[in-house]
Write a structure and sequence with these properties.
The protein has 247 residues and is of the alpha/beta class. It has seven helices and 13 strands. Bound molecules: S-adenosyl-L-homocysteine. S-adenosyl-L-homocysteine (SAH) binds next to helix 7.
Length: 247
């Protein structure tokens, strides 16, 4: 007896929608999302689409009506509640745009709760486009099947970031000059990982960070990693030890 095929099929497209989702609602999809569903995925009426809203969870909808530039989806089944995201922030000094966007995308896939762009003395870039960052996060969340988007903090100077630092949150300061082995330093509870820019932190920034009561200077090994390599490595180590990578 052939096994009944899983439903919805693995290839079911998955979209983030800005408006809150509820069973029975009909949504109109236009613009790029409509182009993707109609032009790329070539969906027909009755086809399934997974939707999530970063509020209530993930739903299965079906294509109710199609026209040249838009389509209607009817929300039919709730598949999952919104996830509980591991309580990890990544505080990343600005680096060149394409690599910075890459860190944002990977941080989303790896499960971070918040992405905090930081301005430090040696940043060669001094502004970040929030809508572009959010678009990268949404695309990554759609692909990796997250039901919650990472929160994105406004660009903050290092001093301001540390001045208002939450008392309960450990600040793992990835210091290329050396620190405790990261894996052994990680303790339970809310956490953040701080990564510098291509040029690293200045001496005064290094001393300023180390003077913070929540700061834990950690090493990611004997080699000098690029900021993006350091960010992804540190997030992965934390996720494996304290995140949701273990059962
Ligand atoms: N300009 C520095 C390198 C900066 S690398 C130099 O050439 O010496 C960018 C950031 O990645 C650093 O600020 C640090 O946060 C992180 N990083 C790189 N290698 C690291 C290591 N071995 N241990 C801890 N953090 C590291």
């Amino acid at each position: 007896m052939p096994a009944t095929p899983a439903w919805p099929p693995k290839s079911t497209p998955r979209l983030f929608v800005e408006q809150p989702l509820e069973l029975g609602a009909t949504l109109n999809i236009a613009g790029n999302s409509a182009h993707y569903l109609l032009g790329v995925m070539r969906l027909k009426e009755g086809a399934p689409v997974k939707l999530f809203d970063d509020i209530s969870g993930e739903y299965l909808a079906t294509v109710a009506r199609i026209s040249k530039r838009d389509l209607d989806l009817t929300v039919e089944t709730k598949l999952r509640a919104r996830e509980t995201t591991p309580d990890l922030w990544i505080a990343q000094a600005l680096i060149k745009k394409d690599r910075f966007d890459w860190i944002a995308e990977k941080a989303c896939e790896l499960g971070v709760a918040r992405f905090a762009p930081v301005l430090t003395a040696r940043c060669v870039v001094d502004k970040v486009k929030d809508d572009r960052l959010r678009a990268h996060m949404i695309e990554a969340a759609e692909q990796c099947e997250r039901t919650a988007l990472p929160q994105i903090s406004p660009l903050t100077k290092l001093e301001a970031l540390l001045k208002d630092w939450p008392a309960e949150r450990s600040l793992y300061f990835c210091d290329e000059r050396g620190g405790e082995p990261f894996l052994e330093t990680i303790k339970a509870g809310p956490a953040a990982i701080l990564i510098g820019p291509e040029g690293g932190f200045t001496d005064s920034e290094n001393a300023y960070i180390r003077a913070h009561p929540n700061a834990r200077p950690v090493s990611l090994g004997p080699r000098i990693l690029r900021a993006d390599t350091a960010a992804i490595s540190a997030i992965s180590i934390w996720m494996a030890k304290n995140g949701d990578w273990c059962a």
